[in-house]
Amino acid sequence: MSYCRRWMSASLNLNKDVIILEQNFILFVVNKFQMEEQKIAAIDIGSNAVRLLISVVNEDDGGISFKKLMLLRVPLRLGEDTFSVGKITDKKIRKLIKLMKAFKHLMMVYEVESYRACATAAMREARNAAKVVAVVKEKAELDIEIIDGTEEARTIYESHVEDRLDRNGNYLYVDVGGGSTELSVISRGKLVESASFNIGTIRMLRNKVTGDELERMNDFLQSVKCQYSITEIIGSGGNINKLHKLAKLRKGDVLDIDKLQNIYQDMKQLSVEERMTRFELNPDRADVIIPASEIFLHIADQTNIRQIYVPTFGLVDGLLHTIYNTTQVEKIPL
């Protein structure tokens, strides 16, 4: 009998432990599910295109990661207006409003909790930028921040690309956009210098890059070259991603400058239509990929760097980190 009582008592304790384990497991699953359902969104209103990135925040062992749910890119090309007539035209404003309304609805469908929408060079220089921000707020109920070039460079760095690099190395982070190029120096895992230059693909297509601005960038590059032993460029932006793909490289493989030069020479002699056919490029990529190549090649020449690492991170990825790291974010209006 005593054996049976001991067995029954042990069984009851075992059952109790199982119940507690089950309860804890259920709580873990519920908490894990709730964590994974924290969704945030970033909108990058650039000179060439507008992007929406929606991601789920995953927290694990004190670290965070972002699982991409959706990335949408629309080639609105606000820079065509700003760099030609100095403002965003009414036609482009109407398109931007429609696009922001669509983005808002997508964020609501995905049950996004918070977002950040940032505009860069084209909006920075448009003399009617305040009007554009106000009308988007009124019609689409979304808030747009216009960030300066320095903040743009630092936000791009927030993508934490340094986590994927040799902590003892020195790197030049180059983000080529439609209206500007952001340069950042990463030394021993830290951002030590950053600068923004009004040298971008749309601006180059419109012959709107000044000699003074090019000289200013060259001075920065020469200073960087003298102070740091940089061995690699980190390339950011849709054009360098496409060039990396055209080089038929695997993810993580570096793009050799000589290879980039060969691709550039092959494309340069072709018309936009021929590039679209031969390299399977979209119309909005087939024209800007030439000036983008020229910018990367020029920077490599100025610094004597011979290879480019292409991690496929950019401004929208950096924005996600800034959203996560601050409570001062916009909630989705419902």
Automatic annotation (TrEMBL):
TM region(s), chain numbering: none
Pfam families per the UniProt record, alphabetical: Ppx-GppA (PF02541)
Occurrences of domain Ppx/GppA phosphatase N-terminal (ranges): 56-322
One GO MF term: pyrophosphatase activity
PANTHER family: EXOPOLYPHOSPHATASE, RETROGRADE REGULATION PROTEIN 2
Protein name: Exopolyphosphatase
UniProt organism field: Paludibacter jiangxiensis
Native organism taxonomy: Bacteria, Pseudomonadati, Bacteroidota, Bacteroidia, Bacteroidales
